[in-house]
Automatic annotation (TrEMBL):
One of its GO terms (biological process) is carbohydrate metabolic process. This is Polysaccharide deacetylase-related protein. It comes from Pseudoalteromonas tunicata D2. Gene3D superfamilies: Glycoside hydrolase/deacetylase. Residues 1-18 form the signal peptide. Keywords: Hydrolase, Metal-binding, Signal. PROSITE patterns: NODB.
């Protein structure tokens, strides 16, 4: 009996050890994003830096918009840079590529390249605002050539989220005088982020036969400052390993380039799925505004009746 128990325990240990690790990098768009709601800019930055440090995340990437570089914005990006986090290019003023000419868009990108070069951890990664990489072949290929000429890599995402929509829900409730329960808000936020992560990972495994090194899209916002630590803790509890974006962009999917023109890009995993013939399920349920409104009402706004 003792031998049987020992053998079972050994098998459990071997199975647990053989479970593939899952890796994910954290990236935050739009920094230094306007801060006129729950936190001011310096408070938001301090809380983000503290949360990352407390949860042993050594490096994330802040995809930054150079039009926001007033003195406070410069101070905020310097704080992120001084903490070891990457500063990357998210254009000068966050335009929609679908509404600009190629020449206008390249000029916008190049202006951000010049203005963001002042930060010591500036890294030549470029993320397209709204993930829109060109609605014509000329735009798509022209921007790819412009990035290559400047030594940039595409700062793609594998996990899209609608955290910006959740931020709007939170800020509206606060503005309307609602006393939001931050514990309930955290549970809702973490739930929606994890739903997106797991949906895209399942899609990746289906299309690639493996879990790639993921890149999570977040934004530099108040809810991120409030709840990023809770999200990291939950990811670690589920077995995810947080890695640097530089490590994530070493995955072989970094070299993938779709041959399609996608006015509305679903992210790198969605691109690969479309190439393989899939057209549905590229935007998970946690990216649907009606679902988010329903979940916000149920998880945050509704008062649980006493039993």
């Amino acid at each position: 009996m003792k031998f049987l128990i020992s053998t079972c325990l050994l098998l459990v240990a071997v199975c647990a050890h053989s479970t593939p690790n899952k890796y994910i990098a954290l990236t935050l768009d739009d920094s230094p994003r306007a801060a006129s709601g729950y936190f001011d800019g310096p408070t938001r930055a301090n809380k983000l830096i503290a949360a990352l440090k407390a949860h042993d995340v050594a490096q994330v990437a802040f995809f930054s918009v150079s039009a926001h570089l007033n003195q406070e914005g410069i101070t905020r990006l310097n704080a992120y840079s001084d903490a070891g986090h990457l500063i990357a290019n998210h254009t000068h003023d966050h335009p929609d590529f679908n509404t600009l000419t190629l020449a206008q868009y390249i000029a916008n990108f190049e202006q951000a390249d010049r203005e963001l070069s002042q930060f010591k951890t500036m890294t030549k990664l470029f993320r397209f605002p709204y993930l829109r990489e060109g609605d014509t072949v000329e735009k798509r290929d022209g921007m790819r050539a412009a990035l290559a000429a400047k030594g940039y890599r595409n700062g793609y995402v594998t996990v899209n989220t609608y955290d910006w929509f959740i931020e709007n829900q939170f800020q509206k409730a606060i503005k309307d005088g609602v006393k939001v329960d931050l514990t309930r808000m955290s549970h809702y936020y973490v739930d929606m982020m994890v739903q997106s992560i797991e949906a895209y990972d399942e899609l990746a495994i289906k299309e690639l036969g493996r879990s790639p090194k993921h890149v999570l899209l977040l934004h530099e916002m108040d809810i991120t400052a409030l709840f990023l630590g809770d999200l990291i803790a939950e990811l670690k509890r589920k077995g995810w390993i947080i890695i640097s974006p530089l490590t994530a962009y070493e995955d072989e999917i970094a070299t993938f380039q779709t041959t399609e023109v996608l006015p509305y890009n679903p992210g790198r995993i969605g691109e690969i799925a479309r190439t393989n013939g899939q057209t549905k399920g590229l935007w998970p349920r946690a990216l649907q505004e009606s679902y988010l409104d329903q979940q916000f009402e149920q998880q945050v706004m509704q008062v649980v009746a006493p039993k």
